[in-house]
Specification:
two-stranded parallel sheet; elongated; 4 helices; mainly alpha
């Protein structure tokens, strides 16, 4: 799993508990730096990695619309006044608005 250097979340402990390796990239390189690092790592052994690649997956927005947005709408009983999100999940914001 890749993380831009400035992002450290609770997932870090879970990933490590399951034996996962986390590779941090410099925070100033942001998401493009992280994506570049992922491509470097996976190109060396392409048969050993799978990249879901939300940015190239045409079904990514559809999943947000069909599954994630309705779940948020249901949990909030249709009363969503404010939505704060991380910049990496722009599709969720768009699809929740469409929902």
């Amino acid at each position: 799993m890749r993380y831009a250097g400035k992002y450290e979340r609770g997932e870090k402990k879970i990933i490590q508990a399951f034996g996962g390796k986390i590779i941090f990239t410099p925070a100033e390189k942001s998401l493009p730096g992280s994506i570049k690092k992922v491509r470097e790592i996976t190109s060396s052994e392409p048969n050993n990695y799978f990249i879901a690649d939300q940015f190239k997956n045409p079904h990514n927005p559809e999943v947000h619309y069909q599954q994630i947005a309705p779940a948020i709408w249901k949990d909030m009983k249709g009363k969503v006044d404010v939505l704060l999100q991380e910049w990496e999940v722009g599709e969720l914001f768009k699809e929740l608005g469409n929902f």
